[in-house]
Amino acid sequence: MNLLRPILLVEDDERDIDLTLKAFQRSQVANAIQVVRNGEEAFSYLRRTGAYATRKAEHPVVVLLDVKMPKMDGLELLGELRKDAQLRLIPVVLLTSSRERQDVREGYRRGANAYVVKPVKFTEFLEAIKYLGAFWTVLNVPPEF
Amino acid sequence: MRVKWARTLIGCVLLTWVYFLAGKAGLLLATVHPSATAVWPPTGISLAMLLVFGLEFWPGILCGAFFVNLTTAGTVWTSLGIGMGNMLEALIGTWLVGRFAGGARMFERPGTLFRFIVLAACLATAVSASCGVGSLYLGGLVDAANLQRVWLTWWLGDAAGALIVTPFILTWAVAPQLKWTRKFAMEVMLLGGVLTLVSLLAFSGWTTLGRDHLPMAHLCFPVLLWAGFRVGPCLSTTAMMIVSSIALWGTVRGFGPFTVESPLSSLFLLQAFMGSTAIVMLMLTAIVHERGRIAAQLATSEERYRTVSDHAADGILSFDERGKVLVANQAAHRLLGNGSGELAGRNLDDFFPELGLKRQAPFENSAAAVRLHGAAMLPHLTLDLFRGGRQQILEVSFGRQVVERRHVTVVVFREVTHQKLMERRLRVILESSPSAMIMVDRQGQVVMANSQTERLFGYPCPELIGQRIEVLVPAALRDRHLENREDFFRKPEVRPMGAGRDLHGQRKDGSEFPVEIALNPIQTSEGLQVLASIVDITARKKADEEIRALNEDLERRVEQRTAELIEANHELDAFCYSVSHDLRAPLRHINGYIEALMQDAGERLTREQLEYLKVVDESSVRMSKLIDHLLSFSRMSRQPLQKDTISMDELVADARRLLRNRAGDPTIEWRIEPLGAANGDRNLLLQVWANLLGNAVKFTQGRTPARIEIGRVTKAEKNAFFVKDNGVGFDMKHAHRLFGVFQRLHHTKEFEGLGIGLAIVQRIVQRHGGQVWAEGAPNQGATFFIHLP
Q1: In chain B, where are the structural domains located?
Q2: Phi/psi at B431 (5° precision)
Q3: Closest-CA residue in chain B for A68?
Q4: Does the domain formed by B312-415 have CATH 3.30.450.20?
């Protein structure tokens, strides 16, 4: 079991990517953070196709998935992921700005393992990332692939 | 039965004796043959006896005749034959008279008397004569040469006996009807004296008249006529008996006008004369008697008519062609006389000019009827009179008769003032109705209609009267209407017609229009009738149609607006979604980078610069909270209600628990009354209580003791829950701003908050159909009320 498998961050907003990476950096998570900017790229990465054909054959320890994205949004991507026999067991955490009840319900309905609202206050965001990192990379036992 | 037999037996014996004695007397005068006489009273006696007492006494006759002849000249067989003949004569005569001539009272009418003469006096006596003469001939007691004379003598004796004796006995036995007064007795005595005197003059030998056989028998006629006209049947027949007896006595003694050489011829002539006289006399008596009877009947009838006429409630009077009143009854006097005395003899025009004007007109077309039937009845008229300042309405009917070539008009009238005035009032009421009013009788004929009917249906009223009501019903519905009408008369009650059905009327021009009809059964003097009130509802139908069209349009617009609202909601959802995601991201970025800046470059920045960054940081956080609350408020407004019965006590407990988790547990004095249950959405009402209690906790900060009361109260006739605190309160002039979104009465520095809590409370309560309001005063606390239906 390799708990140092990368964390896949699916996020389209560069500033969010930057801040998230900063947060991971400051929370001293050891795992590599792999960033993809949309659903297609995420599938390309996960299925090791295109630019990612040569990457090491391992699934990320967790996928942090933004909900609102252009082209394929996070919930759509999640749905497709759960239909894919190879990828369906990968833990997915929805990381989003929305507290809307229907978003939360729809996320879980499509098979999210967690739903985390990004706090506006950066210090609280840091805390959240810290806890997320600790949980999914240390405490949580992912399925073997 | 035994008594009857005894009576019959005694009667027969007596009759035998009477017959025997009378027969013996008669046979004393027998000349042509010892057994044949021209004077034979027994025939008259036997007929009278059987007519009065009954046919069962025939043995008396048989025996009487048998013994008379046996003791005179006959053998047993001839006597028996003669007896049989006499008995048959009486039986046949009695039976014929009883059957065809009115029995014992045959002398009262000319018709029955005539039949008696023919059947009894002429035919029945021929039986006796034939049997008697036949018996004598068979017994060898008479030779063939004398047969005719003997038969004729026999028959004449019997016939005279029947004509003279029978009426005499019957009139005395059946109907004496004598009213003896002094005057009458005097007249009878005078009559008797004169009659006796005249008879003796004519038939006795006291004067030369009788002795010289002068034909003076007719002297008796005036006296007999006197008797016939004046003294009644009994005394008339008695007079006839007296004349007959004196004439017989005189003739037998050889006096009087009928005495000829042969005694037989003398008696023969006498009996022929007496028989004829008796017939005339009896006829006269019968005629007089009948005239008297008819006169009495007429008098009775007239009396009866007068009684009826005088007791009739209707006035009856008759007048001639010149208007002269002939007869007027009491009611006529009462209705027309006006206390002015006897009407008969006065001219109708003098006191009844209105009728005078009318009295000829109704008969102008009735001349033919009078010619054909001798009388004409005409339809009645209604006359309006003003007599003595009073309106009087009479219903008058005329009849005309031709009496003795004079036209006599009979008028029957009654006062109908009250009924007619009521009818006229009813008509005024009907006319004043805006509806068409039609009265229909049980046969469906229109008996009354107001002018609205004329206007509505196009038929002039007079044309409609008498027509079937179905003419006003569209042709296709007439059969059904007929059934419905009969049903109504079977169960008459006030009700609208054709409940639940669209009704239509048909105008004279055939066009149809929608109507509404109310039916009222009315009991009238002419039987049950129905008053139908008919309203043209064309305008209403049109208005209904317009309303329906407007409603449809409204519904369409509501649907359109609803669709727009749904669209707007969808847009709002999209907007909220966008706000959730897109507005937060820049804030997060601002905050993230500011904090990163502060952390990374904080040491190099001045204190003032750091303060600027802090303000940006806090503003971004506050902006985030504003967005959160705005979204929450929007959610509350759109979220569907899930109503249920909820314990408000539990809700309040839950709300307090939430507050404790959020804000710790400040020292507050809670006073919570039992609240009971309410109907609503549990989550939303929990939000209400949480916001209200949160406010109360917030605005009582610093109060010692801080006190919050929760309870239930009736305000302005509404049940309301309330939350009362002793906090800072508010000025009532700002009360209208309390429930506005982001409206605050206190500065953020005094009391934290975004000004959305009460707006959410109001929105939730309003969505429940309830009401929320507040009372308060600065520094004296505030009370919030929630009314839920």
Answers
A1: 2-174, 182-291, 312-415, 435-536, 542-630, 642-787
A2: -65, -30
A3: B581
A4: yes
CA distance B142 to B154: 13
Q: Rounded distance, CA B594 to CA B603, Å? A: 14
Asked, for residue A2, whether it belongs to a domain, the answer is: no
pLDDT tens digits, B114-141 = 999 999 989 999 999 999 888 888 888 8
Enumerate residues 591 to 630 of chain B having a beta carbon within 8 A of any beta carbon in chain A: 591-596, 617, 620-621, 623-624, 628
**pLDDT 10s digits, B205-214:** 888 877 888 8
A122 vs B591, B623, B635: nearest CB: B591
Task: List the single residue in A16, A97, A122 with the smallest CB-CB distance to B580.
Answer: A97
Q: Are A118 and B621 in contact (CB < 8 Å)?
A: no
Which contiguous run of DSSP H or E holds residue B432? helix B417-432
Helices assigned H by DSSP within B117-262? 125-138, 147-174, 182-203, 208-211, 220-230, 232-252
Same fold, B312-415 and B435-536: yes
The ipTM (two decimal places) reads 0.87
Can you give the three-state secondary structure of B724-775, one letter per residue?
EECCCCCCHHHHHHCCCCCCCCCCCCCCCCCCCHHHHHHHHHHHCCCEEEEE
pLDDT, tens only, B69-82: 888 877 888 888 88
For Cα atoms B623, B625, B626, give the angle at the middle one, nearest 5 degrees.
65
Cα end-to-end distance, chain A, whole Å: 9
Distance CA B190, CA A26 (A): 182
Distance of alpha carbon B83 from its chain centroid, rounded? 73
What tens digit of pLDDT does each residue of B161-200 get?
999 999 999 988 887 777 888 999 999 999 999 999 999 9
Interface touch A99/B635, C-beta < 8 Å: no
Which of B19, B21, B180 lies closest to B90 in space, CA to CA? B19
The verdict on residue A98 lying in a domain is yes
In a domain, A1, yes or no: no
Residues of A in Cβ contact (< 8 Å) with B588? 16, 19, 97, 118-120, 122, 125
Minimal CA separation from B566 to chain A, in Å = 18
Cis peptide before B705 (omega within 30 of 0): yes
* Mean pLDDT, chain A, whole residue set: 88
Q: What is the CATH number of domain B2-174?
A: 1.10.1760
Model confidence over B722-776: pLDDT tens digits?
A: 999 888 888 888 777 777 766 666 665 566 666 778 888 888 888 888 888 888 8
Name the closest residue on chain B to residue A19, using Cα atoms.
B592
Amino acid at B515: V
Give the residue among B88, B84, B97 at the shortest CA–CA distance from B135. B84
CATH number, residue A71: 3.40.50.2300
Strand residues in A29-112 grouped as ranges (E)? 33-36, 62-65, 92-96
Residue that has been written with the tokens 């009576």 in this structure: B7
CATH of the domain spanning B435-536? 3.30.450.20
All residues at 6 or more sequence positions from B79 whose CB lies less than 8 Å from its CB, including other chains: B65, B66, B67, B68, B69, B70
At residue B79, what is the residue type?
Answer: S
Sign, Cα dihedral of A66, A71, A76, A80: negative
Interface test with A, best of B575, B580, B617, B632 (most A CBs within 10 A): B580
Establish if A21 belongs to a structural domain: yes
Q: Please, are residues B213 and B259 in contact by the beta-carbon 8 Å criterion? A: yes
CATH number of B642-787: 3.30.565.10
Q: Phi first, then psi: what are they for B531, rounded to 5°?
A: -100, 120
Angle at B129 between CA B96 and CA B171, to 5 degrees: 45
DSSP letters for B600-647: HHGGGS-HHHHHHHHHHHHHHHHHHHHHHHHHHHHHHHHSPP-EEEEE
